């Protein structure tokens, strides 16, 4: 059976999956000893081994609070995860900044920590075109077409869309790269992967593309042979690479312990393997004023994109 076709969500503990359509209790009074970590994914089997080791590490530091078991709860999209948060079915979610902001709007999820991955705590979006393109700056994209990733991407959808709006341009979804936007808009098509975005631009299928600064510097996603033909025209302000959020009504003792254990994990050799499997995490950091401002900017941008673009 295909994940998503049957509306499945996996509550993975000892490898067991349950259908989301099955009756689910609206409270967890009988599971107060369980800490539940959530993740939005269309590939739960791949993500489960990435999540469970760090969850086990955290739970081992919470026995005195009555937490003795950790479970992973998968959701197919932000709407389903928001439902789990509102109903108290999940305690802690690891996600991109854009999705974290969306969960805050939908379910009052609260930022707990910023997540540093492979030594990178924050990154930005990179707008690029072919070297010979007449497009020299962001404003020149009006009437042209760009390739983005998908609606779930922070760096290659949400941030580009809100950036165009902030600069007086209206993003306009197109049926295909051959479609043409209106003269006062910036057309966009979804290419699904960063490599596809670079390919669309390098092959001249679209006028420009947007990827994260991390992906721009990754030869697997933007090959050197492609980059030689490309030129950056705009870089956005930085925003968090990833964010850990918790449900608003999580026991404050559990919340504070979770925060401290994660903060200390980077200095604990026993956590090294679990952190590496946790999407290449190299550490966690408190949300400082600068990054809180960027999260607030993303929140406002998300509202505007939903109202004016989608």
Keywords:
310 residues, alpha/beta, D-Maltodextrin-Binding Protein, domain 2, seven-stranded mixed beta sheet, disordered N terminus
Could you write a compact summary of the structure shown?
With 310 residues, the chain is α/β, with parallel strands linked by helices.
CATH class categorisation of the largest domain: Alpha Beta
Secondary structure category: alpha/beta
Order of strands, main sheet, comes to 1-3-2-4-14-5-15
CATH topology of the largest domain: D-Maltodextrin-Binding Protein, domain 2
Content of β-strand: 15-25%
- The name of the CATH architecture of the largest domain is 3-Layer(aba) Sandwich
Number of domains: 2
Average pLDDT level: 91
CATH superfamily label of the largest domain: Periplasmic binding protein-like II
Radius of gyration: 20 Å
Please characterize this protein's 3D structure.
- The structure is a single chain.
- This protein is α/β, with parallel strands linked by helices and 310 residues long.
- The protein has 2 domains: 178 residues, Periplasmic binding protein-like II (D-Maltodextrin-Binding Protein, domain 2); 112 residues, D-Maltodextrin-Binding Protein, domain 2 (3-Layer(aba) Sandwich).
- Helix content is 34%, strand content 24%.
- Strands 1-3-2-4-14-5-15 form a 7-stranded mixed sheet, sandwiched between helices. Strands 9-10-8-11-7-12 form a 6-stranded mixed sheet, sandwiched between helices.
- Helix 1 links the parallel strand 2 and strand 3.
């Amino acid at each position: 059976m295909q994940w998503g076709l049957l509306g499945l969500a996996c509550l993975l503990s000892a490898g067991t999956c349950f259908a989301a359509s099955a009756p689910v209790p609206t409270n967890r009074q009988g599971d107060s000893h369980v800490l539940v970590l959530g993740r939005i994914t269309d590939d739960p089997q791949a993500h489960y081994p990435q999540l469970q080791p760090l969850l086990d590490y955290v739970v081992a530091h919470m026995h005195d609070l009555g937490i003795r078991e950790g479970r992973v709860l998968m959701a197919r999209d932000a709407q389903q995860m928001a439902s789990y948060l509102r109903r108290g079915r999940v305690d802690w979610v690891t996600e991109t900044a854009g999705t974290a902001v969306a969960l805050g709007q939908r379910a009052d999820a609260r930022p707990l920590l910023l997540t540093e991955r492979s030594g990178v705590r924050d990154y930005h979006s990179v707008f690029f075109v072919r070297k010979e393109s007449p497009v020299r700056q962001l404003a020149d994209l009006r009437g042209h077409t760009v390739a983005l990733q998908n609606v779930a991407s922070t760096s290659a959808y949400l941030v580009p869309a809100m950036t165009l709006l902030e600069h007086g341009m209206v993003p306009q979804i197109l049926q295909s790269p051959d479609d043409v936007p209106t003269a006062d808009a910036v057309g966009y098509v979804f290419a699904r992967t960063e490599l596809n975005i670079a390919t669309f631009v390098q092959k001249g299928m679209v006028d420009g593309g947007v990827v994260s600064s991390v992906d721009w510097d990754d030869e697997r996603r933007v090959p050197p042979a492609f980059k030689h033909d490309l030129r950056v025209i705009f870089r956005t302000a930085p925003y968090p690479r990833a964010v850990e959020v918790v449900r608003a009504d999580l026991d404050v003792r559990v919340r504070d312990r979770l925060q401290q254990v994660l903060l200390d994990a980077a200095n604990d050799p026993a956590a090294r393997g679990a952190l590496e499997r946790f999407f290449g995490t190299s550490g966690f950091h408190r949300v400082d004023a600068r990054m809180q401002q960027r999260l607030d900017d993303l929140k406002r941008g998300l509202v505007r994109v939903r109202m004016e673009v989608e």
